[in-house]
Amino acid sequence: MILNTTITTGIRRCCLAALAACASLAWSGEAWEPAAEEIGNVDALLSTEIPWQGLTPAYTVLVDVGGKTVYAKSMGFADLEHQVAAGPDTVYQLGSITKSYTAHLILQLVAEGTLQLQGMVVDYLPGYTGPGRHASLQQLLTHTSGIANYTALPAGQAILSWVPNQREDILQLFADTPLDFEPGSHFLYSNSGYYLLGLVLEAVTGEDYYALLQNRILDPLGLARTYSGRYEDIVDKRARGYLATADGFHNAAPTPYLTPFAAGSIQATAADLARYRRQFFTSPGIADSVRELATSTLVFADGTPQSYALGALTRNEHHGHTVWSHGGGISGFRSHHAYYPELDMTIVVLTNAENPPVAPAVLSRKISSMLLGEETVMQEALVTQPAPERLRQFAGNYLMTPFRITADGLFSLVYHDGALLARLGAANDEQAPTLPLTAVGPREFVAEGGMGLQVHLRETDGVVAGLEITIPAMDRPPFPAIPSGGR
Asked: Which pLDDT tens digit goes with each residue over 360-385?
């Protein structure tokens, strides 16, 4: 199963049509605005979803409609030790939202003819000899290169925080690691691919990545409160990152900026992030060709659509509206931003806690549901769990394809002490992350916690035919999986 390697009619181009729809609304005097009642209810929603009280890390939420802030609220503290409350001008680390800026730079150069989407890593980094040297820029952008994700490797985990790194240090972590799969055959999130894209940008322009970011995006769009993420810099009102544990809050280790680099180092205020995302879709300073490339999604050879666009944005639908979004996570921080083109609405949720009570992506969707006047329908948990024989029938290994969460594509359901557990890995891998599940339907299960993991089993004539895994915090459509044998 190989991803199509040319931009053809199989690619969905939704951006221009969405912009036309927005323009049509504006010209007719019918630009959408959320009702005052719905805006007022967001406060109640935040109080319900964020149970923290007292001296806690912060959440900052901002909603922009048509370039106007219609809701902004900060809860908690940007700095616990000095008891500095968070506010609209607090600077948060964005983590992987950085990828959208990196993709923007790459696609600018593609539109200008300097880079080619089908160009391979080795074409632009001739000294790179790793097994991923023949992956294309298109595959790096869409996480289909097969290059091992350095942040998931044991050696990578050991130096993700505290240890200052240079570009060469990070390259050594993954350059010689075998590919997880043939380039183009699967989707598996890889920070390594975006690290390479940053190096490509520097190689072909002769400029530092952060200088390119400043000159090509931040200055032209007036983003004065967006930063490189250098720990050494003095950044006004920058938040500190924290870990929320059963024992209370602890300082999270800082991440030297060249460790995530083009995959996750950028910092910004909520207002600057909202401004960037909306301007990307509406500003005349952004070429239509770049916008069209950024919102292009590919199709796997078997017809399975790829929802992760070239611009490091995931395309979803929510209450009948298109949503372009991306989240991020880095030591001590979690983030999410979403743009609804038909409504010209941007929602930003930032927190300076690594494991907050509710994931920003989950909170963002609930806020949009409320602003749209849609009730969030929650299924009540069953009074009793399904019978043990039913749970045992569901237990086993499942193979995710073409979309993967783990390198080997395995996800498992484990029967233990009368309950079902979800495991990100093989059923016999007791070291893999494992979460207890609660039944909310005959074949539907959810895991408690901010990630919001959901599992839906599919049966054919009483035989388990597969399942779908939904992780709202990952901001992706469901991951399909089929039984792969083994219990």
From this structure: 999 999 999 999 987 543 444 444 67
- Residue 431 burial by Cβ neighbours in a 10 Å radius (0-12, 13-18, 19+): exposed
Residue 412's beta-bridge partner residues?
A: 397, 423
- Say if residue 341 is in the same domain as residue 424: no
Which of 106-120, 182-196, 298-312 is the least confident region?
298-312
* Domain match, 448 and 399 both: yes
Whether pTM > 0.85 for this model: the answer is: yes
pLDDT digits (tens, 9 = 90+) for 307-321: 899 999 999 988 899
Instruction: Give the number of C-alpha atoms closer than 13 A to the C-alpha of residue 109, restricted to the C-beta side.
Output: 23
- How many other CB atoms sit within 10 Å of the CB of residue 473? 20
Domain span at 421: 388-483
User: How is residue 238 written in tokens?
Assistant: 């920058």
Residue with tokens 């792969």: 484
> Is residue 290 in some structural domain?
yes
One domain for residues 348 and 409: no
| Residues 395, 359 share a domain | no
| Distances 132 to 99, 114, 308 between C-alpha atoms, Å | 19, 21, 20
pLDDT confidence tier of residue 450, bands split at 50, 70 and 90:
low
Q: How far is CA 179 from CA 182, 211, 214, 408, 450, in A?
A: 7, 31, 33, 11, 31
